[in-house]
């Protein structure tokens, strides 16, 4: 799919000039506010970013940080107040510039299943996306897409009779049957259980590896996309605060927000760090698994809460002024009220 358009593609903006050397999707100075009157709410502010071809990029951030707004701007569903999105170097038409908004090379699956026809069966919901000009091809593509999403056995079932997870697979099949170059997913793993999520993630990964599809997805829960995404874009109050590979951002978070979002990290001021025996002039991010606890009757910290997490526990430990979250891999080893020493085994300085 490494197409380079020297001529404007069908989905283009009049008089646009091609820009060389950009990633597949490129946003520059992108801003969008909502609400009339004196104080409009800035949903995204001055975002500049790149999304690479054939990769899975996850846009993450807390609720209201502008994730869905950014996804809609990328697709061309929303008019930016300033800035632009480019696809293969060409500007993505905005709703004012395109009769049916949405870039032709992309498909978007929104939250909820509003696009599905509840009373039609799975096959018809997917096949209806293709024209009737070549019925053999229509049959072939629909079959292949249902197989890829592993719902071919559900072809004759009505949407109304499916589980939430199965409906999600139908919605993604509908988007993919037209062979878009980019798939945009808004909270695709919302309201589905962990085993379903992992299977769907694996299938999407497989499709990306096999076809070179580019996926951009939005998630409010970074833990669910850490293993799936090749790249993360982190938003905070509409601004981009970090962007890199998940492993890099997890290990070396550039700011406290990213550290908290990705790792539930403890953020210690330089003074707090001193209390824990570390001489630092800057604040530190210390992930809960970077702490070690040792029980000692005279120790300064005490276990205040034990949160059961299955094969491990999350412990809230305090010395009266400093509160610390630590992971305990041996459930039951530190009951509430146990006095403990807190040892920092690893930390990351925040600049
Ligand atoms: N159509 C709209 N009209 C008015 N305000 C809006 C609209 N869409 C988004 N906003 C506001 O813009 C901000 C960003 O919203 P957005 O939905 O993009 O965030 P989000 O990160 O996707 O949130 P969530 O995780 O809760 O879905 C919020 O303050 C939201 O209330």
Automatic annotation (TrEMBL):
InterPro entries: AAA+_ATPase, ABC_SmlMolc_Importer, ABC_transporter-like_ATP-bd, ABC_transporter-like_CS, P-loop_NTPase. GO terms for molecular function: ATP binding; ATP hydrolysis activity. Keywords: ATP-binding, Nucleotide-binding, Transport. SMART domains: AAA (SM00382). Coiled coil: none annotated. It holds the Pfam family ABC_tran. PROSITE patterns: ABC_TRANSPORTER_1 (PS00211), ABC_TRANSPORTER_2 (PS50893). Residues 25-262 form the ABC transporter domain. This is ABC-type Fe3+/spermidine/putrescine transport systems, ATPase components. It comes from Parapedobacter composti.
